[in-house]
């Protein structure tokens, strides 16, 4: 009996050790697989002009070695003369004009701007097409949030753009001042992008574009939108009708290569005027 008891004890210890080792390895792999950034932005084209803007929010420092942009079969890249360390948020802007194309890194801490001359990329007409996926009407009451949830995971060849179309009535002066606040969330709980507009109502845009890109297959994609209408001036309406449109769009790939060897491939939706 004593021998059997020891065998049982040893078996329990071994099994427990295996389970603990598995859980520890799984936790380590989860941490290693975490995306160290959020990428918010989109690309837009107008005639011979093409522009991409990406705001990058870090949750841990990275050391960036090179940047690559891919548009269909076209690509342009820049290897940084010296790897750059980023501890806080930064942004990347790619601008194409008839005379040249530039890629600019805007670093916030410490503040700096670095610009490189690169090859021009242009979207084809097919890439400029938007495909309407869903449309929903809503009547926003002042101070009440309107939530919209969906599985908005982008792929290698597509991302999403949400458009909030305003249909205000009797909003035409500073006495009817209002604000529209749009937030996009990643995985239900992380604020990833925000638009806030509180101009005199006559200057409010009639539509607001919200880019819904992300990093495919890494869990960094948008799952929820929150839209808030606020009445500011006393003569502003207590409610305002809107139409929420969800489009599927072509993408530009923003590829960030880190000194650690990790590659982060984000997609930015394309919108053409």
Description:
The protein has 273 residues and is mostly beta strands. Helix content is 12%, strand content 58%. The chain has one helix and 18 strands. It has one helix spanning 2-33; strands spanning 37-46, 49-58, 62-71, 74-86, 90-96, 101-108, 111-118, 131-141, 145-152, 159-166, 178-186, 190-197, 207-212, 214-215, 220-231, 239-249, 251-258, 263-272. The strands form three sheets. Strands 4-3-17-18-1-2-5-6-7 form a nine-stranded mixed β-sheet, with no helix packed on it. Strand 3 and strand 4 (74-86) form a beta hairpin. The chain is globular and about 55 Å long. The N and C termini lie far apart (83 Å).
**N to C succession of SSEs:** HEEEEEEEEEEEEEEEEEE
Q: What gross morphology would you assign? A: globular
**N→C terminal distance:** 83 Å
Low-confidence stretches: 1-33
Number of helices: 1
* Helicity level: 10-25%
Give the class from helix and strand content and strand pairing: mainly beta
Major beta sheet, strand line-up: 4-3-17-18-1-2-5-6-7
Number of strand segments:
18
* Main pleated-sheet profile: 9 strands, mixed
Report the radius of gyration as a whole number of Å: 24 Å
Mean model confidence by pLDDT? 83
Estimate what percentage of residues fall within beta strands.
Answer: over 45%
């Amino acid at each position: 009996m004593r021998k059997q008891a020891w065998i049982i004890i040893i078996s329990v210890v071994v099994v427990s050790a295996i389970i603990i080792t598995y859980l520890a390895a799984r936790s380590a792999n989860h941490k290693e697989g975490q995306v160290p950034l959020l990428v918010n932005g989109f690309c837009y084209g107008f005639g011979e002009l093409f522009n991409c803007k990406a705001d990058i929010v870090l949750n841990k420092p990275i050391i960036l070695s090179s940047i690559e942009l891919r548009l269909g079969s076209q690509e342009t890249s820049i290897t940084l003369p010296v790897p750059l360390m980023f501890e806080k948020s930064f942004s990347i802007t790619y601008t194409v004009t008839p005379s040249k194309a530039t890629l600019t890194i805007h670093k916030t801490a410490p503040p700096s701007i670095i610009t490189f001359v690169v090859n021009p990329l242009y979207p084809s007409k097919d890439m400029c097409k938007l495909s309407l996926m869903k449309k929903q009407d809503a009547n926003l009451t002042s101070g009440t949030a309107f939530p919209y949830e969906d599985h908005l995971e982008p792929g290698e060849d597509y991302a999403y753009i949400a458009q909030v179309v305003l249909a205000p009535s009797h909003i035409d002066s500073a006495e009817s001042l209002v604000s529209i606040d749009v937030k996009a969330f990643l995985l239900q709980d992380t604020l990833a992008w925000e638009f806030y507009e509180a101009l005199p109502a006559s200057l409010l845009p009639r539509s607001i574009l919200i880019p819904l890109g992300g990093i495919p297959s890494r869990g960094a994609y948008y799952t929820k939108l929150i839209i808030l209408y606020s009445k500011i001036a006393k003569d502003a309406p207590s409610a305002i009708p809107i139409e929420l449109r969800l489009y599927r769009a072509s993408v530009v790939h923003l590829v960030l290569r880190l000194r650690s060897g990790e590659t982060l491939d984000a997609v930015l939706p394309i919108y053409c005027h």
